Amino acid sequence: MKIRYVVKAVAALIILYGFLCSATNAGAELYSNFLKDGSSYTTFDYPGAIGTNVWGINDAGQIVGYYWDSTGSHGFLKDGSSYTTFDYPGPVWTYAYGINDAGQIVGQYAPGPEPYAPVPEPSTLLLFGSGLVGLAAIRRRLKK
């Protein structure tokens, strides 16, 4: 009986781990960018990027934002159907947040790694798994 609960807990962890991996690795598949002009929508994402975020547009229709790939985050300018990538000299990541009608772009950059800590998936799963094992033990004691 005890082994059955452990097997169920391990199976639940495997399923949860698969779900978390597919959700975190699917970044760009979770959302997409669009431009609404009147009643029509045009969707777009930076070609070949893992993910894209759009932040600004000016009266000429130029769009700025940033995308990320295996090398870091990069600012971009979308003008019509063409994309131009730009990076502040030296940093690992560049974000573009706005563009005015003169074509001046504002954003931010950082010389080091992304400014957030990675999600500790293995420890999260261990904590979740130990909780499941604890619940199974409590259930077993209540049945006796």
Compact description:
By secondary structure, the chain is an alpha+beta fold. Helix content is 33%, strand content 35%.
Would you give an account of this structure?
With 144 residues, the protein is α+β, with helices and mostly antiparallel strands. It has helices at 2-25, 121-143, and strands spanning 33-37, 40-44, 51-57, 63-69, 72-79, 82-86, 93-99, 105-110. It is elongated. Mean pLDDT is 76; it is low at 9-29.
Low-pLDDT runs of 5+ residues are 9-29
How many helical elements?
2
Q: What average pLDDT do the residues reach?
A: 76
Give helix % range: 25-40%
Strand order of the largest sheet: 3-4-5-6
The rough form would be described as elongated
**Care to count the β-strands?**
8
Strand content: 25-35%
SSE blueprint:
Layout: H1 2-25, E1 33-37, E2 40-44, E3 51-57, E4 63-69, E5 72-79, E6 82-86, E7 93-99, E8 105-110, H2 121-143
Antiparallel strand pairs: 1-2, 3-4, 4-5, 5-6, 7-8
Structural features:
4-stranded antiparallel beta sheet; 33% helix; single chain; alpha+beta
